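Changelog-adjacent note: as of this version, every example in the card shows the full chain rather than a window. The one below runs 215 residues end to end.
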Amino acid sequence: MTDTRDTDPSALLATQAARSECPDPRRWRALILLCVANFMIILDAQIVILALPSIDKHLRMTVSDGQWVLSAYLLAFGGLLLLGGRLADVRGRRRMFMFGTTLFLMSSLLCGLAWNGDVLIAARVLQGISAAIMAPAALAILMTTFPPGAERTKALACWSGVGGLGATAALLMGGTLTGTLGWGAAWRPASTPPSSRSATDKSRRSFLRPTGISP
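Full-length structure tokens:
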């Protein structure tokens, strides 16, 4: 026998309303993870700027090829954001966030290990694609995890503030990392094994599943 609660729209709305009154206490841990993801996305868009002279020298790239190291990420990221959002709607926000995060970490590692300019540019394109999957999925999770009102406003403020912090940190960290550890260190914050395990493990936990809404 079919449970009418699964098919009755009014019952579903009542269930969602009841759950929204008791928000998941783990939502703040979810917010930390989502902000870290946003930080990495913005960081990797900017941190390469100060590493470009070193990249051009070590990989024997021309100035125009070096510009593609920066532009490839931004073009892929900006051009595929709408598609990434649509995939999150169709395939599931949580699932696409996990996929985008894993792909982002793998492409960041490939950037740091690139042995020539073509590989680096291809890795940056892949990194931009993964960021375009991560960002809308993460924002959608945030919007559905926090109920409208003061909590959602606070969560969005944290999300936006961390993005600005990532852009600033990239310019502050880029020169130091490149000067001390080499140009490959520009992608090390996003590709180190501890951060990789932490991000993927946390994204598998159920607190990323929006309450009362399919993943």
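Structural remarks: The chain has one domain: 26-208.
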